[in-house]
């Protein structure tokens, strides 16, 4: 039985576009992957850092959540991940946003990821992948944060070369 997981991708250090492409190609070793559009978004957190590139990947996988998390952290580290400060710039973030219908709370993992509903750079790409998605009792397409989106589309095609 496979599960549909959604993974948030973010980068604002280095060659962010290439870093996200390689991250998607790494994810594709774990199961069937499709990607949202590719976005640019202003930083949430300290404003004296570059804009981010953001996207979300949909992954059909047989991996258990903590095994998947291990793989995501391995990909972050292999990308030469640098994180300069809390809420600051980083070369690659891979966040396990959603894992099937599961609610998970332990020392390593909170799923659904906290903060999804407040982050248009996560909600908008999620809607690319499932326009009717609901989460924690909210219909994502109706969220008020979508009235004034901060993100811009950089690439609405097959940017990751899948
Ligand atoms: N801001 C944006 N726009 N995109 C991100 O992916 C992102 N990631 C983070 C913080 C520092 C919260 N800000 C972000 O981890």
* Number of discrete domains: 1
Overall radius of gyration: 15 Å
Instruction: Give the helix level as a range of percent.
Output: 10-25%
Strand content: 25-35%
CATH class: Alpha Beta
Low-pLDDT segments, ≥5 res = none
Tell me the number of strands: 10
Gist of the model:
The chain is an alpha+beta fold and 162 residues long.
Walkthrough of the structure:
It is built from three helices and ten strands; from the N terminus they run E-H-E-E-E-H-E-E-E-H-E-E-E. A hairpin with a 2-residue loop joins strand 8 and strand 9. Strands 1, 2, 3, 4, 5 and 10 form a six-stranded antiparallel beta sheet that branches. A two-stranded antiparallel sheet has the order 6-7. It has a single domain (3-155), classed as Alpha-Beta Plaits (2-Layer Sandwich). 22% of the residues lie in helices and 28% in strands. The mean pLDDT is 96. It has 162 residues and is of the alpha+beta class. It has helices spanning 16-27, 65-78, 120-129, and strands at residues 3-11, 32-35, 38-41, 52-61, 93-99, 104-105, 110-111, 134-135, 138-139, 152-155. The site of 7,8-dihydro-7,7-dimethyl-6-hydroxypterin has 11 residues, from strand 4.
